[in-house]
Amino acid sequence: MMQSMTGFARESGVLPDGTGFAWEAKSVNGRGLELRMRLPSGLDALEGPVREAASKRLKRGNVQIGLAMKREARPEPKLDQAVLDRMLSLALEVAARIPGAAPPRAEALLTLPGVLRADIPEPDEAALAAQNATLLAAWDRALVALNASRAAEGARLGTILSALLDEIAALTD
Fold this sequence. Notes:
Layout: E1 7-14, E2 19-28, E3 33-38, H1 47-57, E4 61-71, E5 77-79, H2 81-97, H3 106-110, E6 116-118, H4 125-172
Parallel strand pairs: 3-4
Antiparallel strand pairs: 1-2, 2-4, 5-6
Helix pairs in contact: 1-4
């Protein structure tokens, strides 16, 4: 059976912490196997296993691999009182130097860098291992779908080529 190097697959899901994710793999013709990968920051540890799994299932083609993640729950902003006090003191000092200047406004102070922080807890090792296992299992399913896409494209090409060969054979008889 003929298999094309052209294919596309997408596999998505949700991690236990509510973060949505989606793997995408696109492949086109190539002499050898060339993998290009885009992973979110902090997930560099997945690159090796992703490459290894792709190398086991794919022999040729230029393959673009991407992982997108979207946190559904927004972290609650926390006020950094020390930064706010420092910024308020600076703003009052500047306002005092400018005749007729209005006092600093609360909403303006809240927009200054560092006054509000989003506390995102660092996952523990077990949670990180479970997350990576979920992501790699989804990547494995994406690879299966990519191979199925490439096989379907190959079957379509095989049908076209077979018809063309039959036509050529009919012309030479």
